[in-house]
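Lecture 7 notes: from sequence to structure.

We start with a single chain of 349 residues. Read the sequence below before looking at the structure.
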Amino acid sequence: MKFTPDLLTFENGSPVRTAEDWELRRKELLHLICREEFGYRPAAPKTVTGTVIGTETEALPACAICQTVEIAFDTEKGEFRFPIRFLYPNDNQAHPLILLVSFNMPSFPAEDLIANGFAAAGFAYSDISSDDGDFTSGLAGMFTRTGAGDEWGKIAIWTYAASRALDYLLTREEVDTDNVAICGHSRLGKTALYAGAMDERFRFTLANNSGCGGDALEQTKHEGAETVPYMNGKFSHWFCENHKKYSEMPIWEKIDQHMLVAAIAPRYVAIGSAIDDRWADPYSQQITATAATPAWEILGKRGYVGPAEQINVGEQYAEGCISYHLREGGHSLSTYDWQRYIEFMKKHL
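Now the structure, written as tokens:
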């Protein structure tokens, strides 16, 4: 199947032939994704600080510590603060880190993480800005809105906070700064993908059940899947204003979700699906892995290394830079998913 738009063709119609060409094409894709889907983010602040405000060791694996840290940075309208949880093995070593954007107080599979030598951090998206059309809420209200069509939506706002948490975490001696992942589930899986595309310091992007507007290709939607018109009708605040026009036209004429995944190349991305999560459209998620693969191949790397037909429940294909797994069950971030993401990262550290 030929996927449109073609990843390896510039907007002016000329072909992408080299790694240098791809870097230019990637920048073109990022501008397109910002302008048409999520909106542009403000520049990073000059300084970001973190203050430890609490420490816990109870109910954790041996030699593990979990801290609550308050992140602070300046904005257009003053200082903004939000809390993160930071879990790490207390062994004076640097560890691969997974940063989770969470619906509530971040909860990690601590035993699995610590046993595999991982650290984790996370924050609740509601501590950044409410999940609705109120752009005076939290961080959203700290920047002047102009009404421009490419002004950032809530997903972009949540990713901005993820980058600020990363600013701080990269200063911690417990973090292996070369091996940091961004992770999210559902709408926060979409958030993880956009964060991974925009911030190259994330070596790994772990997107769980992200579906429409995330890693499910629009041009291959299956029965029961969420659609752009539905999403724009109920959750338009996730996106920039320009995205609304795609409720009336095929999104793939100009942009489709393989472009978002491809913008992460040459780094690593893991796509997690569940067989009963028809709303997220698991087979279209797998097809996106195939459709994004040329971005890695032009760089001499392997993208998705797996079959074209829908894989079986319980299988994972993680040899290339794009991992895809399909599990039983429905729409959730499960222990099984965490284990697959840890395995993928360990394979490519």
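The two ends are 33 Å apart (CA to CA). Keep this in mind for problem set 3.
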